[in-house]
Amino acid sequence: MLDVRTEDTVIHLQSPNLEQLLSRRIKYVLEDGIEKDFRTKTWRDQGNLDEFVAESRKYANTLKATFLESGNSGRSILGLLASIAWHNVRFFLDILRRIHIQLGESEEPWSESEVIAALLTSNNSDKTPPIIPNIYIPTYPDYQCYFLKIRVLLFLINGARSSNLRQGAKLPRLLSFSRLYGYQTDWTTRAIEDLVQERLLECLEAPLASDYTKDYKLDKAHTFRVSPLSVVMVNKILPTTIYLSLIGHNLPFHDLGLFEQYKETFEEVSGTLDEGQLEREAIDLFLETELGGVVSRYVLDMFAYETPSNPSLLKVPEISSVESSLESILSQMKGCFSNAVSVQPAESTQALEEQGSLFTYDSKTDSLEADLSPADASSPVTTPSPDSSPLVSSKVAKKIPIPKDIHDIRISRSEQAPLIFWALTALRASGQSWSSGSDITDVINNYLVDDHHRKYPNNISRALRSSALITQDWLDIDDSSKRKLFGLTDTWRDSWLKIFGEPVPNI
């Protein structure tokens, strides 16, 4: 290892292009003739050479179909594996070997869900742990701190200043951030150790090789930044059904009802596992069951106990950025439990509800650091509350079907826009041609989201004024008064059909 000072710039040799690497090795196996390899005598002495060559070509054809012939799907899987390997070509090839052992000898190309499933499970042949970790495991299982690790990663990805991303953040900075949520210092230090050991965080003062990170111990002088694997985890893996389906077996449940439902559902598919080995047929069964929905439902329920009890903290830009990113992940997870059976909360959950939030913030004992800029006074954060007399009655709302994929659809990359479109349609059906951002927020909270995902008027108003929405064909804006009002254009029906792909409501 080189002894590098923290202020030095480390220059890495450029790693080879993994697609070219695979292409050359596959060509060698399929075309150049491995029978002429200098190791042929060794292979012949180990057993039947013809069978060995046939199996080698079958595996090469699987790699070829997965990475070289499946277009964007193959490149997406290759990007995932490259992020995990992080310039370590030997580790990349070892990952391919592990996936091959997990998924068997079929020549069918691997799917992204199958690859994630293989990386999420232990390899029984050599007892190696999963490569992709369960990020929701609390550092101390008796306490509901399921989102501590995710918030640390999101803070380093989105919340910290961009100029500090490469240099990383010191431990005191991360501890100060986590205390704003009420997380105990011991929880955070233990979580950071876990994240480094799981290769989701890089410690700039320690080697990156897995042989060193697996026994990593925290030091108060250490500096941390996110790894490529953590970025892929946040942006691609966390909300997937297969990830949620396979993390429940080691997730501590604090809700007896959902635990019993998970146990019953898991037992339906556990018989398909061959000595605990996850095969391709079993992965399809996992995706067809409600396992992902049960875990998603439970994790979302626990999120309610980890929100800041002081709403003013949401004005802090870094907190706001982290929570906005987290809300996007949770909104994607909601689709996983659309078919999950509703269960009554167990006594432990009812007790938590009576107790209220487990986390509090004391402004006298903790304060923001100097590099946190003050909140924008022009955009106050207000907590939405149910309206005793809603603008849109339930009778009217039932006449406007909620599109099946409304929470997954994006309009110009905006997740708020489809909700705003539906709310304006409901308001129009109620006889209200022009509405404020607050009116639209009330309708969204009453009919489109649950209590854990309620929207704030300032967020909806900001979305309505963004360039992505003001250029939409269906949105009409009234600038005649000091207070902007919003409505639907005469061509909104064409936009509804184009965006949602469902029949236009008759209003």
Layout of SSEs?
Elements: H1 18-33, H2 40-46, H3 49-68, H4 72-85, H5 89-103, H6 112-120, H7 148-159, E1 169-170, H8 171-179, H9 185-197, E2 201-203, H10 210-213, E3 223-226, H11 228-237, H12 241-246, H13 256-270, H14 280-288, H15 291-303, H16 317-333, H17 347-355, H18 394-398, H19 416-429, H20 437-447, H21 457-464, H22 467-470, E4 475-478, E5 485-488, H23 492-500
Antiparallel strand pairs: 1-3, 2-3, 4-5
Helix pairs in contact: 1-3, 3-4, 4-5, 5-6, 7-16, 13-15, 19-20, 20-21
Describe the structure.
There is one protein chain. This protein has 507 residues and is mostly helical. The protein has 23 helices and 5 strands. Helix 13 runs antiparallel to helix 15 (291-303) and helix 20 packs across helix 21. The protein starts with 17 loop residues before the first helix and ends in a 7-residue tail after the last helix.
Question: What brief labels describe this structure?
Answer:
507 residues, mainly alpha, two-stranded antiparallel ribbon, 23 helices, 5 strands
The total of helices stands at 23
Strand order of the largest sheet: 1-3-2
Give the low-confidence spans: 339-388
Radius of gyration, in Å, reads: 26 Å
Order of helices and strands: HHHHHHHEHHEHEHHHHHHHHHHHHEEH
- Global structural class: mainly alpha
> How many β-strand runs?
5
The largest sheet, given as strand count, sense and whether it forms a barrel, is: 3 strands, antiparallel
Mean pLDDT across residues: 78
Helix content: 40-55%
In terms of DSSP E residues, the strand content is under 5%
Distance between the termini: 70 Å
The coarse silhouette is: globular
